[in-house]
Structures are given as structure tokens and as C-alpha cells.
Amino acid sequence: MPTNARTPSSYPPLNVQVHTPRLSLLGATDELLEQLVPVVRKGVVTEPPWPFDDPMSLYKDSPDREWSWLRGIWAGRAKVSDSFWRLYFVVVVDGKPVGMQDLIGINFSRLGTVETFSWLSPETRGLGLGKEMRQAVLHLAFDGLGARQADSASFVDNHASNRVSQAVGYLPNGTDWDTRRGEAAEIQRWKLTRERWLKLRRGDIELVGVADCLPVLGIQSPPDR
Ligand SMILES: CC(C)(COP(=O)(O)OP(=O)(O)OC[C@H]1O[C@@H](n2cnc3c(N)ncnc32)[C@H](O)[C@@H]1OP(=O)(O)O)[C@@H](O)C(=O)NCCC(=O)NCCS
Q1: Which of 52, 156, 189, 194 is most buried, taking the most CB atoms under 10 A from its CB?
Q2: How many domains does the chain have?
Q3: CATH classification at residue 102
Q4: 164 in ligand 1 pocket by Cβ < 6 Å?
Q5: What is the pLDDT of residue 221?
Q6: Residues of the chain below pLDDT 70
């Protein structure tokens, strides 16, 4: 069955889709996660510099890696309130799942700010997909949910991730520290305001299923910021 012809779920976040000319972000159903398991089993990150902060299922050995990864997503899906939600998307290119792009709202109804998290299978990196999927999820955040600001953070030696933030228009927002595999490392922070995004927004990104998802996230209607 083509990934975009799915039976709708009774749970609106799983029906949200974002389409760009190159890729689709599809609400991460169990069926799509299952299709992504071989990528996780093969290994998403296999050598330094390690890109993810702790704790991180993707650092574990298989099969614990796949089990922890699935449990993390199931747990995150179930943890939805006005003060925290996380939308999980599988990135699909030419009908094939190649990675994940998540959108996280912490106190979104009060603050209007979002964060993002992403990864691609190693063989699909460096082809412009990282930038495209970030622009896709930002379109959902700003146009679909009415976000005020998007924040991002990457270890300073994660050049691809930092470059994606810079290339889609974020501005530097200071530094911080976190651990990866137990070792402290410096982080670069980035921010993209709504005002700046409005000047950079693309006209070729389509959102699907967002209105039905708003009440689940505690958003009455996309506010005018
Ligand atoms: C981060 C990630 C999603 C980026 O996706 P990607 O498809 O590799 O990135 P793109 O091909 O869209 O490249 C975007 C920009 O980064 C640059 N770039 C990509 N890989 C790079 C690298 N290894 N070093 C330096 N620059 C790099 C590209 O040239 C491009 O810049 P440009 O717009 O000036 O041409 C992907 O590399 C990945 O999955 N990395 C491992 C997991 C990870 O780091 N996740 C983020 C955790 S914060």
C-alpha cells in the first residue's frame, strides 16, 4: 500500500502529513515505524562525533536499540499535555521511509515555542533532505500551529545539523553543555522567530490533517502571534 494512502487513524496526530516536492513527513504509525526498523537495526550513528544527547536509544546495541527506540516513541506519543507534546514523523522519499523528523512543544500553549529533532539513514545524508525536512516541519509549526519561535541545538562538531539550522534561517542563540555517551560536550543553540520565518517561508509545502490535531495538543485555534 502506498504510504500516503493509509487508513486514517482515530488519533489525529497520526494523520498529520507534510508534503514538499522532495519528501513527505507522515505521522509515525506503527506500520511506518516497522518499515523503519531495518534502518535502526543497521545503525543510525556508528562513529564519533556522536550527534545525540543522553539518554539515546540509538546508541545501544541491536536488538535493544530497536526495542528501546520503539518504546521511546510509544511513550512519547502517550505523554501529551498542554505543557508537553511531541509529534513523531517518519520521513518518506519516493515511498521509502528514510528517517525521522519530530516536533516538540514544551509549554506551547503558554509560550508558542517549539523544538525539533531529526535523523536520516546514513546513506541518505548530504543530499539536501535534512534541510528540506526541517523546512517542512517548520511550515507545520509556524503555519499550521501558529508557533512564535523555533529553537534548535546541536553539538558544535555536528556540522550537518548546525549547517541545516543556519541554511534555513535560524540565528545563533548562545551555547550550552550536555552529555553524549556520558561525556560533556559543547552545544550551539539556534533560534528562528516567526517574523523571520514569514520572510523565508516556502510556497510549495502542503499540510494535511492539522486542524483535527489542534485540540489534542491543547491549541484552541492557531493564534495570531
Ligand atoms: C543532521 C541531518 C539530519 C542533516 O541532514 P542532511 O541531509 O545530511 O543535510 P543536508 O544535505 O540537507 O545539508 C544541509 C546543509 O548542511 C551541509 N552539510 C551536510 N552535511 C555536512 C557535513 N557533514 N559537514 C558540513 N556541512 C554539511 C550541506 O552542504 C548543506 O549546506 P548548504 O545549504 O550550504 O548547501 C543528517 O546529517 C543526520 O541524520 N545526521 C545524524 C543525526 C543528527 O545529527 N541529527 C541531529 C541531531 S541535533
Answers
A1: 52
A2: 1
A3: 3.40.630.30
A4: yes
A5: 76
A6: 1-5, 222-225
